Amino acid sequence: MSAGPAIRCRGLVKRYPPDVLAVDGLDLEVARGECFGLLGPNGAGKTTTVEILEGLLAPTAGEVEVLGRRWDREGRDLRERLGVTLQETHLPERLTVDEIVRMFRAFYRRGRDPAEVVALVGLEEKRRAWYDKLSGGQKQRLAVACSLVGDPELLFLDEPTTGLDPQSRRRLWEVVLDLKREGRTVLLTTHYMDEAERLCDRVAIVDRGKVIALGTPRELVAQVVGEEVVEFQAPEGGLSPEALRDLPGVSAARPVPGGFSIVTDRVHVSVPALLARLRERGVGLTALSTHRATLEDVFVALTGRTLRD
Amino acid sequence: MTERLDRSPLWQLTLARLRLFFREPSTVFWSFAFPLLLTVALGIAFRNRPPEPVAAAVEAGPGAEGVREALARGEAVRVSVLAPDQARLALRVGRVAVVVVPGSPPELVFDPTRPESRLAHAVVDDLLERAAGRRDVVGPAERPVTEPGSRYVDFLVPGLVGMNVMSTGMWGIGYVIVEARSKKLLKRMVATPMRRADFLLSFVAVRMLFLALEVPLLYGFGVLAFGTPVRGSLVALAAMALLGALAFAGLGLLVASRARNTQTVSGLINVVMMPMFLVSGVFFSADRFPDSLQPLIRALPLTALNDGMRAVVNEGAGLAAVAPQAALLAAVAAVSFAAALRWFRWS
Lengths: 309, 347
Description:
The complex is a heterodimer.
Chain A: E1 7-16, E2 20-30, E3 35-39, H1 46-53, E4 61-66, H2 71-80, E5 82-85, H3 97-106, H4 114-120, H5 136-148, E6 154-158, H6 166-181, E7 185-190, H7 193-199, E8 202-207, E9 210-215, H8 217-225, E10 228-233, H9 241-245, E11 250-256, E12 259-264, H10 267-280, E13 287-292, H11 295-303
Helix pairs in contact in A: 3-4, 3-5, 4-5, 8-11
Chain B: H1 2-6, H2 9-22, H3 25-45, E1 54-59, H4 64-72, E2 77-82, H5 84-93, E3 98-101, E4 107-110, H6 115-131, H7 152-182, H8 185-190, H9 196-226, H10 234-255, H11 262-279, H12 294-298, H13 301-315, H14 323-343
Helix pairs in contact in B: 2-9, 3-7, 3-9, 7-9, 7-10, 7-11, 7-13, 9-10, 10-13, 10-14, 13-14
C-alpha cells in the first residue's frame, strides 16, 4: 500500500448561490486503513463534503486529494478504486439482487465475485428477489454490496443506517467491522453517535460546514465532556446551573426540560454532594440517572444544541 | 464468451433495460398491444363499405309524385316525400343530401360545401334530365376497381407506425432517464467507473431492438388483417424507421437532459409530441393545413417519417425518392444527440 493519507482536503468550501454556504472551509485528513466518521446533525454539510470527496460535486474552493490523486486529472482511475454508498439510492425496482450486483461488477476492471459479495452482506437467500421486495435494511445492505463489488481501497458510506431497525443496523455494523479487519479505509457519515463510537477509529464533529472537534471517540469525550453525565428531574425554582457547577467533581451543568444535566469525573463524590445541596434548598427529586459520557454529550457541550434540534 | 458478455458494461446495461421493460406489463402494453388495438379499432371504423345510395327529399305538393318516380327509377337514390319544413330540416341535419322542389323547372336545394351534397346534386340532376328525355351521347364504358393503397386503412397504418416510433422513443428514453435521475440512480452509476456513453448507448440499443419488433409487428398485422400494401423496398422502409427511431431517441434524450423530476419531463414530452400528433399526418393528411403552414409542418420529424414511410409502402418509392425525409431525420438525430450530450445533467 502506498504512503500518504487516503483522503486529504484543505479549505474546502461549497457555496450554493445565492446565499447557502454548505461547507465553510473544512480541513480533513483520513489515514489509510482507518475507519473515519463524520458526525453532525442534518444539514451540517456532511453529505456535501462526502460528495465532493467522491468526485460527484465540484467544490467552490479548496483542495482535495483522494488516494494521492486529484479528481480533475485521474477521475476514472480513481473511480476504479473507490466504493460509494450514497445517502439514498433507489436501485431499479424490478431487477434481482444478483442482477444488480453483476451489473455493478461489470463497471469495474477488477473486482470481487458478485456471489461472494452478496454473501458478505448476508443476502444469499434474497439473491433472486426483486429489489422492490426487499426490506429497508436489505436494500441498504445491497447498496453496500454494490459499493464493495469493485474491491475498493476506500469506501464511502453516507448515513448507512439511517431509518433502519436495530437489528438491521447491527448487521450493517458487522459488515463495516469486517471491512476494517480487511484493512480497507472507510469514511462514514452518521448522526448516530453510538454508531460512530462503535465503528470509528477517529471522528470529526461537523457543524455548519466546519469541523469543530477531531479525535478518537474516547479522547473527545474525555477532553470535551468528562467521564460521566448525571441527569435529574426536579421542580422548577431554587436551582440554577451556576449553583450546580461548584459541586465537587462537576465540570459543567445545563438545564434540560424538567431538570438539569451535569458532567462529572467522579460520580461517587458528585452525586452525594448534589443530593445534600438539593435537601438544603428544599428541592424534591423526581428522577435521577447517570450514564457514561458519549459523543452525543460532546456535541451538546460544543454547540449547546442536541443532534435532533 | 458468456463470461465476457457478463463483464461487458454495455451488455449488462442493455440487459437491465430489457429486463425492466418486460417486467413492467404496462410498458409492454403501450408499446405493442396498444398500437395494434388502435389499428384494429380504426381499421374497422373506417373500413370501405359498398357504395351507399344518396338520400334525397321531395317537397310534398303538386308534381311531387312525378319527381319521386323519376328518382326511384335507378337504385342510386333513396327518396322520400316530405312536407316543405320537414324536408329542409332533414337537409339541415344531414339525413338527406338534397331537396327537390317540384315545379317547372324543378329547384334543387343543396349545400355545395358538403361533398355528399354535391354528389347527390349531380345524381338527382342526371336522373331528372333523363326522365325528361335527355339522350346520353358518349356513353363511356365503366370498369370499377378498389385499389389497395388508396383506402383509409392504408393511410392509417404508416401513420400509426410513425406515431409509435415517436412515442416509444420519447417515453422509453426521456421518461426513464429522468426517473433514474430523480431516484439518484444516475448519480450512483456515475460514482462507478462506468463509461457514461455506455449508459446512453444502452438506451439507444434497446430502442433499436424494439424497433425491429414493433415495425414488422404493426406492418405485418396491417398486411394480414387489412391487406395494406408494402409496395416499395423493405430496405427503404427499414431505413426510414431506423432514422425515425434515432431522431426520436435523440429528442427523448434532449428533453431528459436537464429535467430533475418526471412531472417536468412528462410535460416536455407532451409539448414536443402533441403538435406532431395533430399536424404530422397520423390520422389525416397534413395537406389539409393551409399552404402557409406547410413549410413548418414538413420540417417536423414525424411528418418526414410518415411521408417517407407512406411513399415507400403506398407509392413504391425507393431510397432515392425519400432522401429529403431521410436527410431531415438524420439531421434531427445528429443535432438532438449533440445538444443532449452537451447539456446532460448526471446528478
